[in-house]
Amino acid sequence: CNSLPDDFSLWIDDHRVFLASTSHEYDAWLEVTEDKFVELAQADSFWLLLRKKTLSAYDFAFLGAMFWNFKELAPLLRDRLDDWWPAPIPHLLMTDVTKWLLKKYEDSPSDPLLIDILEFISDAWQRADADEKFLIRASFLQKLPSESEPGADILSLLSAELNAAVLNG
User: Which strand (E) or helix (H) includes residue 94?
Assistant: First the structure.
């Protein structure tokens, strides 16, 4: 654990755990099963390192504001608080929000709530610096369907800045 880069971030998707750095030098640097991650997480030294590296003040301010402004997302936060107390991992929360938005789009593509949340994310993107954009890039933009995949119509609801970021990877 001591050899991890200073700027690494973590997220879990499809029962895999990924560590990556904002410099992308270590993308998919570590991939372990969720069970193995739980075993690792029980080691105090690993958990302290993980908390130090994944609990960005910006990420929690952004996510906290989103959950505060959009009470309909509260069940996602409650589920993660139950799973990851004392500190849910921001990338897990943002990935959950992304899945929720994709489902909402599938059910009702013109729902005003969907539009409002996408505008909120766009506003946060515009205000964020490069490091702060990592959460939105890794756990929102990169989880959206590509133009050739089903559900890609949701991309038409994104701001020009977010669409440009999707195209640029």
Answer: helix 90-107
